């Protein structure tokens, strides 16, 4: 029995050893496969960020050679930052970044591989595992209008607004992207018109205009939105250089409270031009104005602005608009020819309406304040109907406070304008271009918010 038992043990031991070796090798293979998956995932993330950074960097430089050099340098920096040296024992190799220009787009291709150790858990695998990846980012040219609120409430934030807007502008290609610049308060002005035939924009001119912005007046958001859309649509659809990616960037710190109109005057000859009629944000008071719809802050003269007339003895008080104006127009006509301010061909946006807010044609705070919000939302929706993306950025706690006659949050209007994923249900339109709303709680959040919008735009150019 003893001899038999000894022989059996001698036979079993090699089997146990072999089994253990098989298990070790299987574990090694499983570990190797898992390691390979993790390294390849890291490579994917690193090349994605590198390709996107490279595409962004093509915005820097006045010619393709400089843009290519900048793209390759940016791709290398972002790859190295996102794939640390020696990650999980691997050695990464970044291929030569390729930058190609075709028609109206630039493609950045980033390839990389990583060599893993050949020996894992004491096993001797048949050579190194080399997971490789290739990422391409195709950046299409875009047509874009940057629209900046320059109302008086932003005066304390002026320096940060200017610097953040300039930083945002640097994300775009001055030779390929077609960009315009608009600012608004009581009225709106085109600082740099979007080019109607050639591509590109004058970065120096835009930076100069941004640095010179003055912050005063009310928040006639509809005037800024009207001007931005008009600029994009001034590029003929038949123009072969017109981009199929069109974007409006809209920045504000408050709720809309003003808009331009040819009002119906009791004595028509009192005022023969359009003017911006305004309200305050506290939910009360008389509508006031009028101001030029084509300027940041210029009061109209003569009887177009009752305050210019001073004390009205016949009424025993200062004159109000309602003393001389009989009604609001039925349709938005702030830029229609004075010879026919009620031109039926220009009846795009209703002033008097039952939705989304009820507005009659009486000259009251309620009607003017509601119409100001209705109009800018309607203009943004019309832009999206035309395939335009609207991206909005809001600054400051006032946007989250109840304001106006209906005590609404200003940021709800900005979300509606963008057709953002978190927009109120009353204005959500998922079948239309979905933009992004970014909230900057403080001035320090402005640049990150502008960067977020730039990233979102570059993603939809892919």
UniProtKB/TrEMBL annotation:
Superkingdom, natural source: Bacteria
Keyword vocabulary terms for this entry: Membrane, Transmembrane, Transmembrane helix
Membrane spanning stretches: 12-39
Cited InterPro entries: Tad_N, VWF_A, vWFA_dom_sf
Keyword Transmembrane helix belongs to the record: yes
Pfam family, one: VWA
Keyword RNA-binding: no
Domain VWFA: 143-258
The protein's name: VWA domain-containing protein
Annotated source species: Duganella levis
């Amino acid at each position: 029995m003893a001899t038999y038992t000894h022989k059996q043990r001698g036979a079993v031991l090699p089997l146990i050893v072999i089994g253990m070796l098989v298990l070790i090798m299987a574990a090694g293979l499983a570990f190797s496969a898992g390691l390979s998956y993790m390294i390849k995932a890291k490579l994917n993330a690193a090349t994605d960020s590198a390709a996107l950074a490279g595409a962004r960097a093509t915005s820097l430089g006045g010619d393709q050679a400089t843009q290519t050099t900048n793209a390759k340098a940016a791709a290398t920096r972002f790859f190295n930052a996102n794939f640390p040296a020696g990650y999980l024992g691997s050695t990464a190799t970044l291929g030569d970044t390729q930058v190609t220009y075709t028609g109206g787009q630039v493609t950045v291709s980033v390839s990389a591989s990583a060599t893993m150790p050949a020996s894992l858990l004491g096993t001797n695998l048949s050579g190194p595992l080399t997971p490789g990846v290739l990422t391409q980012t195709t950046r299409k040219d875009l047509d874009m209008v940057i629209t900046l609120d320059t109302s008086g409430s932003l005066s304390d934030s002026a320096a940060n607004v200017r610097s953040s807007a300039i930083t945002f502008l640097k994300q775009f290609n001055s030779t390929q992207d077609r960009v315009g610049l608009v600012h608004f308060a009581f009225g709106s002005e085109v600082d740099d018109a979007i080019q109607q035939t050639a591509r590109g924009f004058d970065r120096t001119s835009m930076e100069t205009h941004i640095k010179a912005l003055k912050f005063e007046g009310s928040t006639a958001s509809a005037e800024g939105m009207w001007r931005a859309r008009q600029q994009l649509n001034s590029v003929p659809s038949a123009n072969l250089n017109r981009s199929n990616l069109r974007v409006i960037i809209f920045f504000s710190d408050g709720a809309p409270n003003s808009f331009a109109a040819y009002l119906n005057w009791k004595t028509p000859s009192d005022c023969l031009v359009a003017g911006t009629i305004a309200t305050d944000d506290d939910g009360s008071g008389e509508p006031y104005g009028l101001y030029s719809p084509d300027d940041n802050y210029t009061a109209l003269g003569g009887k177009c602005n009752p305050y210019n007339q001073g004390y009205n003895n016949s009424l025993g008080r200062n004159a109000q608009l309602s003393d001389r104006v009989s009604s609001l127009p039925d349709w938005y006509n702030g830029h229609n020819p004075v010879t026919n301010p009620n031109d039926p061909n220009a009846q795009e946006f209703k002033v008097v309406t039952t939705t989304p807010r009820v507005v009659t044609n009486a000259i009251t705070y309620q009607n003017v304040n509601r119409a100001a919000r209705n109009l800018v939302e309607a203009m943004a929706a019309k832009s999206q109907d035309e395939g335009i993306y609207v991206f909005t950025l809001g600054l400051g706690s006032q946007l989250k406070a109840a304001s106006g006659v209906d005590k609404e949050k200003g940021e709800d209007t900005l979300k509606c304008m963008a057709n953002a994923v978190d927009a109120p249900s009353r204005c959500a339109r998922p079948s239309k271009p979905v933009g992004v709303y970014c909230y900057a709680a403080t001035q320090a959040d402005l640049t990150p918010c502008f960067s977020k919008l730039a990233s979102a735009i570059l993603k939809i150019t892919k």
